[in-house]
Amino acid sequence: MTTLRTYQTAGVLLGFAGGLVISFDVPVIRAAGADPWLLMVVRGLVPLPLYLFFWRYLGRFHDTPKNPFADITWVHVGIIYGISQICFTASVFSTSTANLVFILAFNPLLAAVLSWWLIGERPKLSTWVAIAATILGVGIIVGGGLQAGTWFGDFFALATAATLALALTLSRKSGADMSLAPGLGGVVLAAFALPMAAIHFSPPQSWTWLAVNGALLVPIAAICLAMAPRFIPAPQAAIFYLLETVLAPVWVWWFFGETMTRETMIGGAIVLGAIAGHTLWKLRRPGARLKEVDIPV
Questions:
Q1: What is the pTM of this model?
Q2: Contacts of 253 (CB under 8 A, 6+ apart)
């Protein structure tokens, strides 16, 4: 039981850290002022040295094999992360932020359904309640000023939520360390965008913020969030992605002076309360977990 509680604590801390870091993503993207093609190239290539350093010299902190490409699941998850990044960038530039965050809120629900289907992990009632509360909270946030985006952007927002949920579920099913799989996803992302970035090159408003986004926020958040499903169920790990939905408006207000509406504050409180309550409940009553995967001790 003590070992189980330790694993769950590690998963919760990783998920929370990743969700907190990624909450700065949209504000930093806004500060950088880059076009989508250049943004995708930077988000794909700039983090690679950090992934390689982590893989080569910090082996005691991860279990990625020396040749991760020998693990077909690792390759699949990496490619899915790359597709998710492509869809996310397309959605950011093609629909309203309100539409984007509302659609992304279905990530935990999709992860719960996929986990039930692919792994046989039947979500507990507490997880369904937390998912419902987060969707309610996000709905309140965007309900006051929801503007319809184009079908193109909305489609890619849904694709982002679905691919993230699938990557988390496959990571959970394998039981392997997928913390470096987003690095492969970055290669996929950069390979997709590089030709168009070269043809339509346009300098960003700030190279510094663009570098911060690619070198720090993307890899740190990706590593933490990709590692979390190894210790906690995919639906629970997916909930931490919603921290971005709640906290990004706070950072935008802080750095750009945009005030938050009453709906944002009420909805944010509900989402944060759902995440905190669900996390504390899981840590207090860990239950019989990890039976589906073989996690080394």
A1: 0.76
A2: 259, 260
